[in-house]
Sequence to fold (1007 residues):
Amino acid sequence: MEFSPATILNWILWVPTAGAVVALFIPREAKQAHRIWGNIVLFVGFLVSLPLVWWYDKSQAGFQFVYKRPWIPTFNVDYHLGIDGISYLLIMLTTVLGFIAVLSSWRLIQERVKEYYIMFMILQTGMLGVFMSLDFILFYVFWEVMLVPMYFIIGVWGHERKLYAAIKFFLYTLLGSVLLLLGILALWYYNQGVLGNPQTFDLTKLMELTLPIEWQRWIFWAFFVAFAIKVPMVPFHTWLPDAHVEAPTAGSVILAGVLLKMGTYGFMRFSLPLLPDASREYAWFMAVLSIVAIVYGALVCMMQKDMKKLIAYSSVSHLGFCTLGIFVLNHQGLAGSLLQQVNHGISTGALFLIVGLLYERRHTREIVAFGGLSTPMPRFATIYMIISLASLGMPLLNGFIGEFTILLGAWQVSKAWAAFAVLGIVLAAAYLLWLYQRVMFGEVTHAENKALADVNLREMVTLVPLVLWCFWIGVYPKPYFEVLEKPVAQLVERVQPRPAEEARLPVVLPESPAQPAAEGEQR
Amino acid sequence: MWTQFFQPIDFYVIVPQLELTLFACGILLMDFLLDREHKYLNAAAALLGIVFSGVRLWQMRNLDFVAFNGLLRVDPFFITFGFIFLAATTIVILMSVRYMEVEGEHDGTYYALVLFATVGMMFIAGGTDLITLFIGLELMSLSFYLLAGYLRADRRSNEAAVKYFLLGAFSSGILVYGFSLLYGVSGSTRINEIAFAVGQRGLTDPIVFLATIAIAAAMFFKVAAVPFHQWAPDVYEGAPTSITAYVSVGSKAAAFAMLLRLFLIPMGPVRANWEDILMVVAVLTMTIGNFAAITQENIKRLLAYSSIGHVGYILLGIVAGNETGLMAVMVYIIVYAFMTLGAFAVVVGMRRRDLIGDQIGDMAGLFFKNPAPAVLMIIFLLSLAGIPPTAGFWGKYLIFASLIESQRYVLAVIAVLYVAVALYYYFRIVVSLFMADPREPGKMSLAPGLVAALAVTCVLTIVPGIWPDPLFRLAQASILRPFP
Fold:
C-alpha cells in the first residue's frame, strides 16, 4: 500500500501493531533488542503521523483523509477512518507521547521487557483507532481493545497494589463501555427500526439524524457513564488515583496524556453532535460536575503525601476545565477545551515523567523523602519549574491559553461558573508550587539525595520536546486555533442553532419563544 | 410395504450418523486387537469416522429435505449444528489422547461412546418428531453418563456420573411427561402437526400450558439453566476434563438445538406463555452463574458457572425472538463452542502424572513456563468475557442488538452489566497465569493432539473476532425456519 493522503491513517494506525508482530519473533532474552525495537517502532509511528501537519487542510470542516472499506456487510459496518481538527490534534499528541513514554521506560522496565513493549505497541494502535474511527462499531472495538494492554501495563509492571488498581481500572471502564454499546445500539435501532432508513453505524450519517428528546436523554446518560468514567468526572473518579499511582511511569504518562482524553473526545465527537438537545438540556449539570471536579480535585491535591497521587488528582481538576469548556457549548469553550486537553497531555505527561525520574533514582514517591533537590539536580530543577508553571496556567506557557479560553467561554454563559472555575487555577498554583518548594528548595535533608544524578541525555530527549511544546502553544497558539476553527464552529452550529435559523422553522411551537428567554436568564 | 413409511432416499440423509455409528462399533471391535501402546489408533479411527461424516454432511449442505415421513429434517439448521458437533468432537478427541493415557483409562470404549454421543446430538438437531428428539437425547445422555464416570478409580468422577444420571433420568421423565401431554393434545408426535393443534387450543388451554412447563423444566435442566443448574458444577468438576469440555459444548449445543426446535415450532403458537418464563429464567441464570463463579477456586467449577452465565445470554436471544435474536443464538453457540473448548484444552494440558491441575493456583506463573498456552488461555478468557476483537464479543453484541431491537431495554442493561461481573472472575485466572510466580517447576504436557486442538480453537476464536462477516452469514442462513 502506497503512502499517500488517502492511506496515511492506515499507516499511522497499523505501524505499531506491525511492530508488535515483529517483536513476537525476537527472542525473550534479547532485552536490549526489544528496547531498541520498541523505540524504533514508536518513533516511526510518530514519523508517519508527521505528514498530517502538511497535508491537513485547515479550511475544511468535514472529515479528511477518509478511508472506507466494508468490514461487516451483514450489518453495514465499515472500516471507516477519518479525522477532523479535533481528532487531528489528539492523534499528534498520541504519537508524540507514545514515543516519549516508551523512551522513558528504558531503564525502569527490567523484567518481561518483550511483553512490555508489545503491550505498548498494541495500546498505541488501540488509542489511535479510537480517535480515527468514524464507524461506531469500529470505534467501540478500539475503545475496548485498548483496555487490555493498559490492564497488563498496570497489573504487571506497576507498583505495590498493582493488581487491585489494574482490575479496578478495567472493571470501571468496562462498566461504562458496555452502556456505551447499548447507547450505540439504540442509535442504530432508531435509525433503522423507527425511521426505516438502511441500517448504518456510520457516524457521518447518524449525525444527520435528529432524535426525539426522550431518546436523546436516555442515550445521553448511557454515553455519559462511559465518557464520564473515562475522563473521569467527579463521582466516577475513584479509579484514577489508584491506576495512576500504581502504573509504571510510562503507563501513567499514557493514562493521563491520552486515555483520559478519550472521555472528553467522546463528549465532543459523539454526545454533542448526536444528541444536541439533550446536551443543551443537561449542560448545566455537566458544568456543575466539572466545577466540583475542578475545586474538589485541587483541594485533594493539597493534602497528598505521595507526589504521584498529587499529580493524579491534579488531572481530575484539569480535566474538570476540559469538560466545563465542552458544556458551555460555545466556540471559545470548545476550542479552549480541546487545546487544554492537548496541554494537559503535555504538561501532566511531563509531570509524571518527572516523578518517574525521581522514582527511578530513589524508589520512593513520598514528598518527605525529597527536599533541596535543586542543588544536586539543577537542570532537572529548571525543567520541573517550567512544567509546573505550564500546568498551573502561567501566561506564555500552554496551560494559560487553554484555561483562559475556557474561562472566556464560561464567562459568556455564567459568571458564577467562571468565578468558581478560577478557584481551580489559584489552587493549582498553590499545590504545584508548594510541591515544588517541598521537593526542590531548601537544604538537602536526606543524605542519599546529595549525590542524585541530574537528568541524563535520554531523559532530556523525553522532557525537552515537551518543554518546547509548552512554550510553542503558550507563545503562538494561532495554528492550533486555526485547526480547530472550522470543526468547532460546525459543532457549535449543531448544538446551538442560531436564533435566525430557529425562526425560519415552519412550525412555531408555543414554547419556542420562551426558550431563548430562558437561556437569556441563564446568562 | 416399507415404502409406505420410508423412501430409500431417506437413508442417504442419515449417512453422516450411520458412518459415525459404524466407526464407533468398529472401534469397539478394534480395541481388542490393540495393545496399550497403540490405543491412540482408536482415536485415529474416530477422527477418520468424523472426516467421513463431515464430507457427507458437506455434500448435503444445500439440502432442505424432510425424511422418514416427517421424523427428520435436513435443513441448514441441522447442517450447521452437525458441523458444530463434528468440530467439537474432533477437538475433544484430539485433546483426549494424552489425557486419558495419563488418567490410565485409555481404551476404545471411550472413543466409541464419544461417537455415540455425537450421533445422538445429530439426531437431536435434525429431529422433527418427538420420538426422534427423545431417542437422540437419550443416546447422547446415556453416553455422557458413562463418560462422566469414566475414571473408575476417581471418587469425584463416580459421584459426577451418579449425580448426572439420577438428575438426568429425572428430567428425561419430566420431558416425556410433557411430550405425552402434547401427544394427547394433538394425536401426533410430529412437531408441525402438534404446532397446528396447539395453535388451535390457544394460550388459555391448561394442558398445553402444563406441557409447556414440563418441557421447559426438562430443557432448562439439559442446558443447565437456573433453577435446574446444580448438577453442572459437580459434573464438570468430577468428569474427566475432556468430557467436561464435551458436556459443556456438545451437550449444551444439542440441548439448545432441541430447545429451539421445541419452543419455536410446537410451542411457537403459545409464545406468550413461555416468553416470560424464559426471560425470568435467563436473568436468574445470568445472575447466579456469574455471581457464583466469582468465588470458585477450581477452574472446572468456575467454567461450569460461567457456562451457566452464557446460557442466560443465549436464552435472552430466544426471548428477543426476532431475526437478529435467532441469529445471535446461532452465533453465540458457535463462538461459545470454540472458546470453551480452547479454555478446557489448556486445563487438559495442565494434567500431569503428579498434578491434577484444575485449581486456579495450579496455573500460577504458567506464562513463564509455557508462554504460548498461557497467551492462548488469555485469548479464550477474553473471548469468554466478550472483549473485542475476539469471537465472544460478537455473540454478546448480537444478543444486545436483538434485545434493543425488540425494545427490551431493561433486559439489555442487565445483560451488559453482567459482562463486567464476568470479566472479574475470568481475570482471576489471568492474574494467576501472568502475574503470579510459578509454584512448582513442572511444565505442561503438550501432546501433538492437544497442540492441534489449541491451534484450531485459537484460530476459530480470533479469526471470526476480526472478520465476523462469514460467521454472521452462516448464522443468518441457518436460522431455524418452520416447514415450508
